[in-house]
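Operator note (shift B, R.M.): manual run for Signal recognition particle receptor subunit beta requested after the automated queue skipped it. Running by hand, logging everything below so the morning shift can see what happened. Input copied straight from the record, untouched. If output looks odd, do not overwrite the archive copy; leave it for review.
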Amino acid sequence: MEGLEQWKKQAEKWSSQALEHIQAEKWSSQALEYIHQVPPEQIYAAIAILIFTSFLLILVRLFKRPKANTILLSGLSGSGKTLLFYQLRDGSSHQGTVTSMEPNEGTFVLHSEKSKNGKVNPVHLVDVPGHSRLRAKLDDFLPQAAGIVFVVDALEFLPNCRAASEYLYDILTKASVVRKKIPVLILCNKTDKVTAHSKEFIRKQLEKEIDKLRASRSAISAADIANDFTLGVPGEPFSFYQCQNKVTVAEASGLTGDISQVEQFIRDHVKS
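Run finished. Output pasted below as returned.
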């Protein structure tokens, strides 16, 4: 009896599959009959619309990129980037030098905006280590960058002017920075000190050093600079106004919390 029951179940299964097959063939036959009745011009038009729609969807996926909301803090070690990071995040003041060997990274509402009513969009802030061996980490974040804050120590500027200029030159000639026209803010930090240099003095000295670098590096073979862009206008002294991306200069003091100009730069490029 058990064998008979199994045979009946199997027979029912085969019968069901046969009916499904017959129904599928019937639908297929009806579809072919309908297609034969449709004028060829309508079929061609439908195929063309389908291809065109698929092409548009592919284009949208290729060109639609996530909105950039990342601000990068770059500059030499000791310039005050990490202290600035903490000030922007929670308003804390770390006494002395705060050195980071790994990127400090976080997404948060700026400390000065936490008391504001209404919705305030958070900022993704990355403090890139200033050590020469770790600067390559900057490239990891450039695809999402809405702006770069290049921090300069206004107190110890002259001894570090050449090194800061070389680092800034490398940033301003990066293809990813130039093509996307990523704005750069040169932030003269530690301006609360009496002996700190002014932002105008720092700007002029950086322009002079970059002009020298531009002249010396122009002798490098094209193969060595294939991925870089040339700065400035040939035959004219270099000025930040000649850059394809916007370069501005501001002052701040991470230690005292006087960071309103960098906050304004952030909000100009990461909308709240």
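Quick read of the result: Residues 2-63 form one domain. The beta strands are 70-75, 104-108, 123-127, 145-153, 184-189, 247-251.
Leaving this for review. - R.M.
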